[in-house]
Amino acid sequence: TVSFFWFRRDLRLEDNIGLFHALKSDFQVIPLFIFDEAILDSLPKDDARVGFIYETLSKINSELNQTESSLLIKKGKPRQVWQGLLEEFDIKEVFFNKDYEPYAIERDESICQLLEAHQCITFSFKDQVIFEEKEITKADGLPYTVYTPYKNKWLEKYDQENPIREYDTSQLFSNFYKSNFDFPSLGQIGFVESSIKVQAYELDNIDNYQETRDFPAVDSTSYLSPHLRFGTVSIRKMVNFAAKTNAVFLSELIWREFFMQILYHFPKVVTQNFKSAYDGIQWRNNEEDFKRWCTGNTGYPMVDAGMRQLNETGYMHNRVRMVVASFLCKHLMIQWQWGEAYFAEKLLDYDLSANVGNWQWAAGTGCDAAPYFRVFNPEIQLKKFDEKGIYVRKWISEFDLGYGEPMVDHAFARDRAIATYKAGILK
Ligand code: FAD
């Protein structure tokens, strides 16, 4: 008789709440990861995120080997995998951490039904966030759709618990099930190594975060995003650190939770405008223009540098993400869903809630979004945030003072965007 702990987007042994509780249970624990075919089948074979997951799992497995246990890796559709596991093992309890995306919620409901039908008890835990969707609400119980009051309530609640408890799992490792499961090669999972790698996160510069974070050439942000996405770092540790170190940095971590609760309460935002009054906008959606944006050939250095950085590394600085997103929606009048899908394909830190939330923010269609008549000027953004052209030179090898011809004139595009939005917004 055994318990299972099912890893999903919490790929660490340290300070992992679900794992902590599993290891405290009465049965020995088999740690499991499922490569989900429903997700993998749509990805290119050299997807860097799959490579990162694989590498992380290898490290976890090596750590487990030191306690004479090992990770059980399966590949398939999660329900079928669990059906097989129920035949193979006498499973009494299954532990996992909650995931708030619509696909994950449906998957987990279906698996819990299956497990419970086999007299297996399931336990789920809040691990991915400090406060989940129903913990931070307005006085009337409705969700916040504006960031600042959400943040104030979040901080108020955090202050009552500061610091948030971290969970020491290391003393409990003897409760892992002794095993030596085969660890597959990346090829056996159907993938090959990518040349793009997730870089380690960096907290040394956070002291000056509020002064440096907007300057892509300074490169001073934390690079935490893929680590928070896949749970290779604990959000509790990061928030406790941020609360001691830098309030602006902490507020960025709160943006992450803000968009997560928006996605939970308004799952339509995945494909539709949060503000339905914006549904009438006549997008141009020109395929050629889109291609020039994707490949970084718009003639605007900051836009092109950003897109090239994304294509080459799977990362783009936040200031530049705002500029390229605004450019796509406002200068080219291409609907945000196209840009969101392109980012989803390329970003190592791609996270549905943050991606959709920020894209809708840039398009003006989201909750608490920038007003539609505010159109970023990519030249002014360059002057303000990369005055010496250090960032753009890094990504545009042919950059010089006379770089390119803008594919569309800024003043023309700005007027067109404002007029098109104005005409399209439903009264
Ligand atoms: P830091 O500045 O060090 O921030 C620390 C952490 O705070 C980040 O790792 C992230 O978890 C969180 N954070 C910071 N800014 C935001 C924000 N605006 N919204 C939500 N969380 C934030 N972030 C993603 O994690 N995944 C995405 O798919 C994603 N798509 C985006 C799309 C667009 C159009 C824009 C404008 C932003 C997007 N962001 C996304 C937010 C932000 O750009 C990245 O989180 C940030 O650049 C990651 O780098 P960092 O970890 O060094 O950030």
| List of distinct ligands in this structure | flavin-adenine dinucleotide
Q: Can you say what the CATH homologous superfamily of the largest domain is?
A: DNA Cyclobutane Dipyrimidine Photolyase, subunit A, domain 3
Q: Would you tell me the structural class of the helices and strands?
A: alpha/beta
Provide a count of the helices: 18
Main beta sheet strand tally, sense and closure: 5 strands, parallel
CATH classification, class level of the largest domain: Mainly Alpha
The helix fraction, in percent, is 40-55%
Beta-strand proportion:
5-15%
Shape: globular
CATH architecture of the largest domain: Orthogonal Bundle
> What is the C-alpha radius of gyration, as a whole number of Å?
23 Å
Unreliable residue runs: none
The third-level CATH topology of the largest domain is DNA Cyclobutane Dipyrimidine Photolyase, subunit A, domain 3
Counted up, domains total 3
Distance between the termini: 62 Å
Q: Reading side by side through the largest sheet, how are the strands ordered?
A: 3-2-1-4-5
Residue-averaged pLDDT:
96
Helix and strand sequence:
EHEHHEHEHEHHHHHHHHHHHHH
Number of strands: 5
